[in-house]
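Crash report, auto-generated. Payload:
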Amino acid sequence: MGAERIETIEGRALPMRGEDIDTDRIMPARFLRSITFEGLETHVFEDDRLAASRSGDVHPFDKPEYEGASILIVNRNFGSGSSREHAPQGLRRRGIRAIIGESFAEIFFGNSLMIGLACVTAAQGDVERLMAQVEHDPGVVLHLDLEAGACESRGLKVPVSMPAHVRDALIAGAWDTTGLLLDRYEAVTATAAKLPYLSGF
Amino acid sequence: MGQTLLQKVWDLHTVRTLPTGQTQLFIGLHLIHEVTTPQAFDALREHGWRVARPDRTFATVDHIVPTRQRQRPFLDVMAEDMIASLERNCRDFGIPLYDIGDDRQGIVHVIGPELGLTQPGLTIACGDSHTSTHGAFGAVAFGVGTSQVRDVLASQCLALEPLKVRRIRVTGQLPRGVYAKDVILTIIQRLGVAGGNGYAYEYAGDTIERMSMDERMTICNMSIEGGARAGYVNPDETTFTYLEGRPFAPQGDAFERAKAWWRSIASDRDAVYDDDVAIRAKDLTPVVTWGVNPGQSIAIDGAVPAPAGADRQSTSDALTYMGLQAGQPIAGMKVDVAFIGSCTNGRLSDLREAARIVRGRHVAPHVKALVVPGSAAVRKAAEREGLDRTFREAGFEWREAGCSMCLGMNPDKLEGNQVCAASSNRNFKGRQGSPTGRTLLMSPAMVAAAALAGEVTDVRTLADPAPAGVA
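Recovered output after restart:
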């Protein structure tokens, strides 16, 4: 398949608190007005970041201590709403290589997998422990091991999970699906031949 | 043991189990638009792939198109660029395109059904999360991202996980002034915005069975707002009557044979569901969202909730963004903009119902109100009935077909922290194009009422209130 094998992800983390963070917030629609994905990294959470700075706050994505982080930590139902792949594209292009969360919206999860951005789930308490650790010490390095299903970080080890086939696809570098789908095209033709609506009923 | 429609359609379209454990599913119909496809076509060119089934791929322009000034080239350079790109891609790969100026142009989820492309028993994909709309016909329809659009273009297949099925049975007569929109908003409020994760929703029960196709589309459209990637209604006589005679529907004897097959793919009486939920129609009221996701809604005569329990932080955050106080009644909240349109509620019956309410009345002086038909065909049909005049005389702007103010990708946007009564599907922060804009989701009839009063208003209190079960 030629896709990168993704087995472990190591790096500093960025905790991003909040439930139901939708893809309109991750990547506002006006940045979809382009025929490429280039440059999306600069617009991740743009409106939220602006709103935070206006109210005298600093958005996690603007905090210097999280700059260069490659693992995002989130709460429940991250990536809900619009199917725009621009959301995971922006995160990936910004250097995020894995997301640990309580849960993910389904389309976001699938879109992330399609571009090799690993999304793993962890129990609410474990997500909280990870966030607290990173907020206390942003320099801490997380070791996310997909095969072992664990994330280790300075004295903390939490179990993480993802569907077995997703994990296997990432580890085998088989997450770029087009090749797989084209692999036995005669089977596609055979399936199509059985469909009443493709043969005048 | 019986099967659900989802299982039958899934099995019929299964090509094989992939080495990844996913199902390779054949896609019977691929609908594409200008926003989520350019990078997919680039990938095809890069690899030297062709479009596997251009005969099962159809394109239109909806998201980025202006709804007022349609002359080409558009003043909006980026919109012009994206549309020119889609035109080039459709030409190069042999895909039919219903472009600006074509009387078949419109929101992709409005034109698919209108043209008879959307049929029972199909698998359908489109790079838009509201693809679930097409489930109203008993199709299994998925919203996908751009890489999956690439997969469908190249192979006419998707790699997917099987879905569980939750049946949601709505029974009884809807009270007057309560619409399909109120039913789906209530379902999302009760089951949660992530409640449908991993599920397809099968909408059933006599309330759903009595609904028109337009109403069923409103329900299925918002499945994704409840986290369910797909939602469907079993096909029946209402479905068949809608489809008969449409350009891409089977004709003559083939239509009769099609009906027999369509009936056969409906869920069996003894089908087994992964979950079952019951909703009593008579308990429902008109609903308005008060927060920043479609699950944060209350009855029109309700009060905005106070932060409490597990949702304390998100409720508090939503109240701050919306500028609301806990305990405040939602009725009476001032609105600046009223938007009737979108793939949720931009169909002819929606416009008829809104027109019925505004006829002979006038929009409040401080309100900017617009009606954006879901398709060129809806617009034309509405004009034949004189609905455009009704709306214009009442102070509404009458626009050309497109996604318009649902999503802030075209010139129709909120400004500053304007409050918009909207018949669309999402009240996310910044959704309508202003980073501080505020959206209140409701039925088209309720938007009409809000436009007239200049504030959130119970449509049932207006003279000549809506009869139950219309639009």
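Post-recovery validation: The first helix of chain A runs from residue 23 to 26.
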